[in-house]
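Weekly modeling sync, notes
Attendees: S.R. (lead), two postdocs, one rotation student

Agenda item 3: backlog of single-chain predictions. S.R. asked that every request posted to the team notebook include the full sequence so nobody has to chase files. The rotation student volunteered to paste the first one in as an example of the format we agreed on. Action items at the bottom.

Example entry:
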Amino acid sequence: MDTESREMFQKLFVKIDAMDTRFDSVENRLDSMDHRLDSMENRLDVMEVKQNKMHEQLTELQISQKLFEMNTTKKIARLQDGMDTIEEILKLNELLPR
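Predicted structure, as returned to the notebook:
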């Protein structure tokens, strides 16, 4: 191998070594980013589980609220019927004006 070829290969090796160093740096940064993304993914999974639990609790609360409303409406109607009956009895016994 002549001197000129040797110098050319030497320059190429220097450039390749520099590129290899930069690629190692990029690879390290990508590994770091991958670790951080894994951490974020785990946090998102936890948040999703919490969100699903809150959704279930909210659904249960809505059902309980509807049941309360229905029962209250029935009881108020029953109470009103009872009050109407008492009013009629009091009027029949002339304890209330007609």
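Discussion: group reviewed the output briefly. The two ends are 129 Å apart (CA to CA).
Action items: rotation student to repeat for the remaining queue; S.R. to check formatting next week.
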